[in-house]
Amino acid sequence: MKLAVAKQHVFDRFLDTWTGTSLSQVVFENESSTSLDSGSSAWIRVSVREITGGQRTLGSEGNRKFRRFARAFIQVFTTPDTGCSSGFSLAEQARELFEGKSFEGLDFYNAQIDVLGMSGKWFYTLTQCDFNFDDTK
């Protein structure tokens, strides 16, 4: 599986299972967040980055397995001066969608939440979900 396909599986799972905010308050990487950033309601950005990988098997071309390690980032933006519980609650909901789950050839394991504080006019909480998948070449 290629990274672009893995990303789409992550995005699809988020869309299919997210209940923390309205889906109109969710953007994915390389989508404009201008209208959400200028609003006053909590909003979410979801992105995926490859971290590392390596060859797992030998063999002829078309039959070699490469294990890719990647991370899904769920960025939670909430209004300031309301405490961190709403952002943390949404970040925990995001963690529950992925941590320890396997679907569509993706195996998720660790997920962590970081309360990062102010980012512009928003209070920023980040969920990072590590996963791996195999690519055959």
Outline:
With 137 residues, the chain is an alpha+beta fold. 24% of the residues lie in helices and 45% in strands. Strand 5 (106-119) and strand 6 form a beta hairpin.
Would you mind describing this structure in some detail?
This protein is an alpha+beta fold. 24% of the residues lie in helices and 45% in strands. The protein is built from 3 helices and 6 strands, in the order αβαββαβββ. It is elongated and about 60 Å long. The termini are close together. The mean pLDDT is 89.
State the helical fraction.
10-25%
| Class per helix and strand makeup | alpha+beta
Query: What's the end-to-end separation, in Å?
Result: 9 Å
Radius of gyration: 16 Å
Approximately what portion of the residues adopt beta-strand conformation? 35-45%
Q: How many E-type strands?
A: 6
Number of helices: 3
Largest sheet: 6 strands, mixed
What ranges have pLDDT less than 50 throughout 5 or more consecutive residues? Answer: none
Shape: elongated
Mean pLDDT: 89
Q: How are strands sequenced across the largest beta sheet?
A: 1-2-3-6-5-4
- Give the H and E element order: HEHEEHEEE
